[in-house]
Amino acid sequence: MKRKLNIMAGDTALWVIFFLLSGISLIAVYSSIGVTAIDTMSATPMHAFFKHLGLVAMAYLVVIALSHVNFRYFSRPSLWLYFACIVLLILVLFLDPVHKRWIDLPYLPSFQPSEIAKVVLLVFTARNIAISRDRLDEPVTFYMLLVPVVIVTALVAPSNLSTGLLVFISCYLLLLFGGVNRGLWWKWFVVILALLILAFALFYFFGDKIDLFRTSTWGHRLQSWIHPDPTELSQENMAKMAVARGGLFFQNGIGTTIHGRLMTQAHNDFIFAIIIEEAGSLSGAFIFLLYAWFYFRCIRIATRCQVLFGSLAVAGIGTMIFLQAVIHMSVSLGVIPVTGQTLPFISHGGTAYVFMGLGIGVIQAVAADNKRQQRLAAKAAAADAQPSPTTDISKTQAS
Fold first, then answer.
1. Which of 336, 332, 350 lies closest to 259, judged by CA?
2. Pairwise CA distance, residues 169 & 6, whole Å
3. How crowded is the C-beta side of 41, counted as CA atoms within 13 Å?
4. Three-state secondary structure of 210-251
5. pLDDT truncated to tens, each residue of the chain (399 aa)?
6. 155 located within any domain
């Protein structure tokens, strides 16, 4: 009998998490997008909401399509996609080396090459580690694996420092997961950490005096975080007030945001604060637990995969999504400086929402393959457990 096709293949728990996050997204975006829709999109809030709804639906289609593909087929295309991302990132820097993050094409939605580069680079790094599995302890292998990561980071960071650091940290952790030389990994970890501390110190003291890329913006954000001015009508101050107004659980109710009406990035960079304002701190804790549950499922899928490439791709993408969520929530709560990172699968991310769906699709493809391998192993075990006809005949004759 022919087996019925499962449209939503892969890990059921991940599908549940994706449903919940996207459902929260539709409610939160509809509640918070009004100012931006009118001021910058030249559209009504309803029009902006339906545009977001269309992108969410497109992300679902991407995840469903990729979940039915053998994940091994993602390895070779990641090489060509990596070089394509390099070209797009260079093009962005050429168009505007300071502020430009988007590519606008005729008759097509604008998009950020850095968003697709995040997923592509992690899959490409997983591929390189798998290819080099027999010589991972060699120092030259460590550097060869690190060079492609540094190239993408150097191209992304000038216009989007937080995304560049997010990609680098995720890939650097992936090298550790993959089994590279640990002594060398930790040595460079200390060096990189020292360089980051030095860079942040320079941004803080001299950022507004050095006209290089977006150093003035980075310096201002650090200064505002260390020495906040509570009287300033800034996005971060309004986010803090939104969180303070939220109470414990649904004190205000959906659609009652006050601060979201005054913020230009309420639907993107600070949507977590608006959710807490309307639904309370317990709702914020519930969202954090959803991401923690998501990461736990990714690690479980990765450990069950018998193919190194698939295991590392899932671990890398899961780490990146979880870290981005933690960074966004930390910014909304004022724990770290403003970064501009959206909340995965909740923020109004435009085409970034679809590109993030690529990552979920890869994870679900590996999860679906794990289930296939388990079914095959169970069938093989059942076949081995059945007595052979020869054995049955011999037992009958003996009796």
1. 332
2. 35
3. 22
4. CCCCCHHHHHHHHHHHHCCCCCCCCHHHHHHHHHHHHCCCCC
5. 445 567 888 899 999 999 999 999 999 998 888 666 655 555 677 878 888 899 999 999 999 999 999 999 999 999 999 999 999 898 887 765 555 676 766 655 677 888 899 999 999 999 999 999 999 999 999 999 999 999 999 999 888 889 999 999 999 999 999 999 999 999 999 999 999 999 888 877 776 666 667 777 777 788 888 888 888 888 888 899 999 999 898 888 888 888 887 887 888 889 999 999 999 999 999 999 999 999 999 999 999 999 999 999 999 999 999 999 999 999 999 899 988 899 999 998 677 888 899 999 999 999 999 999 888 888 888 887 776 655 554 554 444
6. yes
Cα separation, 42 vs 137, in Å, equals 55
Is 214 contained in some domain?
no
Q: Encoding tokens for residue 12?
A: 């059921």
Tell me the HSE value of 251 on the side-chain side, using a 13 A CA sphere: 13
How far is residue 110's CA from residue 76's CA, in Å, rounded to a whole number? 27
Give the integer Cα–Cα distance in Å for 313 and 292: 18
**pTM > 0.85: yes or no:** yes
As a dihedral over the C-alpha atoms of residue 368, residue 179, residue 341, residue 46, rounded to 10 degrees, the angle is: -10
Query: Cβ atoms within 10 A of the Cβ of 12, count?
Result: 13
Tell me, yes or no, whether 114 lies in a domain: yes
Cβ–Cβ contacts within 10 Å for residue 296, how many? Answer: 13
Write out the residue range of the structural domain in which residue 259 sits.
12-180+228-371
| Count of domains for the chain | 1
Residue carrying structure tokens 């993050």 = 101
Examine residue 198 and state whether it is found in any structural domain, yes or no: no
Angle, CA 309 vertex, CA 305 and CA 310 arms, to 5°: 40
User: Can you tell me which residue has the tokens 């892969």?
Assistant: 10
